Amino acid sequence: MRDLFDKIYKDKGPLGKWAEQAEGYFVFPKLEGPISNRMKFRGKKVITWSINDYLGLANHPEVRKVDAEAAAEYGSAYPMGARMMSGHTQLHEKLQDELASFVHKQSAYLLNFGYQGMVSTIDALVSKQDVIVYDVDAHACIIDGVRLHLGQRFTYKHNDLESIEKNLQRATKIAEQTGGGILLISEGVFGMRGEQGRLKEIVELKQKYNFRLFVDDAHGFGTLGKTGAGAGEEQGVQDDIDVYFATFAKSLASTGAFIAADKEIIDYLKYNLRSQMFAKSLQMQLVVGALKRLEMLRTMPELKDKLWENVNALQNGLKENGFDIGTTQSCVTPVYLKGSIPEAMALVKDLRENHGVFCSIVVYPVIPKGLILLRMIPTASHTLQDIEETLVAFSAIRERLENGTYKRLSASVSAAMASKE
Ligand SMILES: Cc1ncc(COP(=O)(O)O)c(C=O)c1O
């Protein structure tokens, strides 16, 4: 028999094995100063393109004031206990009602965290006889929720209608045998590449197949749709989403999340969501803070307008300068370049140190080998000056990538990586 920790001593995991080269810089970087379009990284000001503060609320003076007042009034303990037992309050209910009305649903229920809430909601919605059909590029919280499922599950090719239909057919056959139902899960916006889930077409498939649609709209809430109700509203199918999910971690710039659906479904989930039944209620300061943020989403459409002005300026500027931004249909702005992981590291270092531009890199295995994805999140707090400077920087790094500068600079990293492969 082996010591449980043996494997940990030998293998740090697919990301952990690069800790020595990457930690503190490419992963676990420390961005300092107030959350904004320009923050400090290693003592130097950088334009920040990696923070999901879409509407610029994180450091908005009105939000900061309400957060501070709520913290002073309630502290961080209140209320104590799970919602069902002793952690329920009028303000939790008020926030739920306002969230439900904002996303045009009958009812809503608060979750402490988006990730855990998604896992738990999937768990509560399905029993062993049911079948789950979901996008192969789903967020980790969907994958982990599906992992809890004791029945059958099928992935479909990313946003591929033919594959969705084929898997609905397979799921239908099984559900007919087991006597179960089908849950189809999509994201409203896929957070890496920015494509919207094909909700309109998926909803059309309801004419042919019997399934319920669950949408994780983390990136669509507050950014898409006429009233900010998300990807479903944008595509004109909000009413056909059976269960809607969004987190507070992006447009609302906070912590917490919610699900919304018909009253009867939320009433069921209230009594069956293990992540909420067996965990302390969402803190009051977060509830009060979310009420303020939601009011601002409702009453300050200029925040979303400014966001989209910046999204369009950045995305058009990149395209005009010949950059490949893939097939994004949202604020998420990916820039695809060709290169190895060591080249990507040298490139990002150059961007940060010499151009003062901070964005995240995504490489294999999240995207195919040989591609580098620079993932940018424009927000309402960016300026056209930020965008102009970034476009100049991007043209410079592309030239250096193409003339082999990063290949030369990264030779030692390449050698170190080869020894770890
Ligand atoms: C698509 C998606 N779902 C769920 C989550 C998890 O939300 P939270 O940060 O509230 O746990 C995220 C990330 O924040 C996300 O991008």
Structural account:
The chain is α/β, with parallel strands linked by helices and about 425 residues long. It contains 17 helices and 14 strands. The strands form three sheets. Strands 4-10-9-8-7-5-6 form a seven-stranded mixed β-sheet. The chain has a four-stranded mixed β-sheet with strand order 1-2-3-12. Helix 3 (about 60-75) packs antiparallel against helix 12, helix 4 packs parallel to helix 12 and helix 13 (about 300-320) runs parallel beside helix 15 (about 385-400). The longest helix is centred in the last third of the chain and has 20 residues, at about 300-320. The protein is globular, with a radius of gyration of 22 Å. Pyridoxal-5'-phosphate binds near residues 118, 139 and 249.
Shape type: globular
Distance between the termini: 27 Å
Q: Into which percentage range does the β-strand content fall?
A: 5-15%
Arrangement of strands in the largest sheet: 4-10-9-8-7-5-6
What's the gyration radius in Å? Answer: 22 Å
Q: Which small-molecule ligands are present, each listed once?
A: pyridoxal-5'-phosphate
- How is the biggest beta sheet arranged? 7 strands, mixed
Compute the number of helices: 17
Class inferred from helices and paired strands:
alpha/beta
Q: Which consecutive residue ranges, at least 5 long each, have pLDDT under 50? A: none
Average pLDDT works out at 95
Number of strands: 14
Amount of helix: 40-55%
Relevant terms:
421 residues; alpha/beta; 7-stranded mixed sheet; 4-stranded mixed sheet; binds pyridoxal-5'-phosphate
What's the structural blueprint in terms of helices and strands?
Blueprint: H1 6-10, H2 19-22, E1 31-32, E2 38-41, E3 44-48, H3 61-74, H4 90-102, E4 107-111, H5 114-125, E5 131-135, H6 140-147, E6 153-156, H7 161-178, E7 182-187, H8 199-204, E8 212-216, H9 231-234, E9 243-247, E10 257-261, H10 263-270, H11 274-277, H12 284-299, H13 301-320, E11 333-338, H14 341-355, E12 357-358, E13 360-362, E14 371-376, H15 384-402, H16 405-409, H17 411-418
Parallel strand pairs: 3-12, 5-6, 5-7, 7-8, 8-9
Antiparallel strand pairs: 1-2, 2-3, 4-10, 9-10, 11-14, 13-14
The chain binds pyridoxal-5'-phosphate.
Residues 113-115, 118, 139, 141, 187, 191, 216, 218, 247, 249, 257 line the site of pyridoxal-5'-phosphate.
